[in-house]
Write a structure and sequence with these properties.
Blueprint: H1 15-34, H2 44-48, H3 64-75, H4 97-109, H5 120-136, E1 144-148, H6 151-169, H7 174-177, E2 186-190, H8 195-203, E3 212-214, E4 234-239, H9 251-261, E5 264-268, E6 293-297, E7 309-313, H10 316-323, H11 351-387, E8 390-391, E9 399-403, H12 407-420, E10 426-430, E11 433-439, H13 447-463
Parallel strand pairs: 2-3, 2-4, 4-5, 5-6
Antiparallel strand pairs: 1-7, 6-7, 8-9, 9-11, 10-11
Bound molecules: pyridoxal-5'-phosphate.
C-alpha cells in the first residue's frame, strides 16, 4: 500500500522567506528599471558609503530584511552600471533578463553541480548546453567540455589536457609523475597573447620566459609566415578576438602547419569565437574549428550572468585524463560526470543560465545579438572617425580603439568620458600609442545608447582638446 510521505504534513518554513525573496525581487527590478538613467560609474559618495558594510564582525544575528535593504541601499549605488547599455569597458555583456530569472531560480535550487548524483538537473542542462555551444561554435560534437568560471580557467583546463596529452605521447604520465624531470614541451604564442593564457601556462608549470613568441601584424594577428618550425611536443596558442582590436589570427594556415607537425593548437576565443554564429562575421573564425582545444566565455557575448567560461577539447579522453578525480564516496552515474572534466568538485550550476540563454535566443537570436553589437561598433567608430578621432584598429567585430591627438590627450579624454558618466570606456596601450577601448558586448545597447555615447565622447574630446580640429566636429554644436 502506498502511503503519503511523512514530509507532506510538515509545516512550511519557506513561508517566512517568501516576503524576503519578494523584497529582493522588487529591489532588483527597480535597480534594472533605473540603471540606464544613472551615471555608469558610481559616485565617490556612493563608493565612500561602502565602509558602512564593514566594521566589527557583528556578535548577534540581524534581520534578513535589513541585510537585503543594506545591500540595496549601500551596494546598488556603488555598482558599475554594466547591466545598462552604455558600459563599454573590458569585454562585458549584460545578463539577458531570462538568464537573470534562471539564475534566481537556480539560486533557490542551490544545486551542487559536481556530478549527476548531486544534481541530475544540473548535469542534464550541462550536457545540453555543451552540445549546443559546440554546435554554434563549429566545434566537433564529440568534443569534451567543462563549464568553468571564465576564459582564464577554460584555458587552464584545456591546456592541462594539452600538457597531459603531449606528455603521454612522449611516454610520460604527468598526473602520476608531475612536471619535474618530464620531457620538455615547447609553448608557442603570439606577441599579443592574452595575459590569462600566460597565467594558465604558468599555473601549469610552463615558465613565462620559456614561451616562444611569434611576431604579429598591425592588428595583433599572429604572422603565419613567422611561426617557428613546430613538432609533436609543441602547444601553439592562437587567438580568436584580440582583447584590444578584436582581430583574429589566421587559423586555417596555422592549423595546417600544426597538423602536419603533430602540434597541439589551443584557441583563446573568449569572445571572438562567437563570431562563428554571425553570417557576416563567420569568415573571421574560419580554420579555428581545426584546433585541438578552445576556451571561451558565456558571460561576454552570450550575455549570461557572471561567472561562466567554457573549455572544449577535441578528444574528450585527453580532458578526462587531465581532470578525472575518483573517490569511493563520489559515486558516478551514467554518462558524463562534470567533476571528471573540469578542475573543480563542488561548483554552482552555471549551465542553468547558459541553457536559458540558448533556449531563449536560439541560433538566430545569438546571431542577431552578435551582428547587432558589431553593427553598433561599426556605426560608433565611423562617426568618431568623421568627428576627428583616430581609430587605431580595423573594426572587424565589437572592439574599437580611439585615439586623440596625443597620448596625453587620449588619457584626458578617457578620464573625461568616465567622469561624465554617460558611458564608460577604459584605456589601453596599442603598439606604442595610448587608446580608449570601446567594447560593445551587451544585448542591452541600443541605437540611442550609441548616439548618446557618441555625443558624450565628442563633447569630452572637445573639452580636453583630444580632437584634431573643432571644424570636423559633428555632434551637438
Ligand atoms: C581574448 C581574451 N582572453 C581571455 C580573457 C579572460 O576572460 P575571463 O575574464 O572570462 O577569464 C579575456 C577577457 O576579456 C579576453 O578578451
Amino acid at each position: 500500500m502506498q502511503t503519503e510521505p511523512l514530509v507532506m504534513s510538515l509545516p512550511d518554513p519557506s513561508r517566512s522567506s517568501a516576503a524576503l525573496l519578494d523584497d529582493a525581487a522588487r529591489r532588483a527590478q527597480l535597480y534594472l528599471a533605473t540603471v540606464r538613467r544613472r551615471p555608469v560609474a558610481p559616485s565617490a559618495a556612493a563608493i565612500g558609503r561602502l565602509t558602512e558594510l564593514g566594521g566589527r564582525l557583528p556578535d548577534r544575528p540581524a534581520s534578513a530584511h535589513d541585510i537585503v535593504r543594506l545591500l540595496d541601499e549601500i551596494g546598488s549605488p556603488a555598482t558599475m552600471a554594466s547591466a545598462g547599455g552604455r558600459y563599454f569597458g573590458l569585454v562585458i555583456g549584460g545578463a539577458l533578463p531570462v538568464t537573470v530569472a534562471a539564475s534566481w531560480l537556480a539560486a533557490a535550487w542551490d544545486q551542487n553541480a559536481a556530478m549527476r548524483m548531486s544534481s541530475p538537473v544540473a548535469a542534464a542542462l550541462e550536457d545540453v548546453a555543451l552540445a549546443w555551444i559546440a554546435e554554434l561554435l563549429d566545434v566537433p560534437a564529440s568534443a569534451g567540455g567543462a563549464l568553468v568560471t571564465g576564459a582564464s580557467m577554460a584555458s587552464f583546463t584545456a591546456l592541462a589536457a594539452a600538457r597531459s596529452a603531449l606528455l603521454a605521447r612522449a611516454g610520460w604520465d604527468v598526473g602520476a609523475r608531475g612536471m619535474f624531470g618530464a620531457p620538455p614541451l615547447r609553448v608557442v604564442v603570439g606577441e599579443e597573447v592574452h595575459v590569462t593564457v600566460l597565467k594558465a601556462l604558468t599555473l601549469l608549470g610552463f615558465g613565462r620566459d620559456t614561451v616562444e613568441r611569434v611576431p604579429v601584424d598591425r592588428q595583433g594577428r599572429m604572422r603565419d609566415d613567422a611561426v617557428p618550425p613546430l613538432d609533436g611536443r609543441t602547444i601553439l596558442c592562437i587567438q580568436a578576438g584580440n582583447v584590444n582590436t578584436g582581430a583574429f589570427d589566421p587559423a586555417a594556415a596555422i592549423c595546417r602547419k600544426a597538423a602536419e607537425a603533430g602540434a597541439w593548437v589551443h584557441v583563446d576565443g573568449a569572445f571572438g569565437l562567437w563570431a562563428a554564429c554571425s553570417p557576416s562575421r563567420a569568415h573571421l573564425t574560419a580554420g579555428f574549428e581545426q584546433a585541438d582545444s578552445w576556451a571561451t566565455d558565456a558571460h561576454k557575448w552570450l550575455n549570461t550572468p557572471y561567472d561562466c567560461g567554457i573549455a572544449l577539447v577535441r578528444d574528450p579522453a585527453h580532458l578526462r585524463a587531465a581532470m578525472a578525480a575518483t573517490a569511493a564516496y563520489l559515486a558516478a552515474g551514467e554518462g558524463r560526470e562534470a567533476n571528471h572534466h573540469g578542475p573543480e568538485l563542488s561548483r554552482r550550476a552555471r549551465a542553468v543560465e547558459v541553457w536559458a540563454a540558448l533556449r531563449f535566443l536560439g541560433r538566430a537570436g545569438v546571431a542577431e545579438m552578435v551582428e547587432r553589437t558589431c553593427r553598433h561598433a561599426a556605426t560608433l567608430s565611423g562617426r568618431l572617425r568623421e568627428a576627428g578621432f583616430e581609430i587605431l584598429n580595423e573594426v572587424v567585430v565589437n572592439q574599437i580603439l580611439v585615439a586623440g591627438v596625443t597620448d596625453a590627450a587620449t588619457d584626458r579624454l578617457i578620464a573625461a568620458v568616465q567622469q561624465d558618466g554617460t558611458c564608460w570606456c577604459g584605456g589601453t596601450s596599442w603598439q606604442g600609442r595610448r587608446a580608449m577601448r570601446v567594447s560593445i558586448s551587451s544585448w542591452a545597447t541600443t541605437e540611442e545608447d550609441i548616439e548618446l555615447s557618441f555625443r558624450a565622447i565628442v563633447a569630452a574630446g572637445r573639452a580636453t582638446a583630444a580632437l584634431a580640429g573643432a571644424a570636423k566636429m559633428a555632434a551637438g554644436s
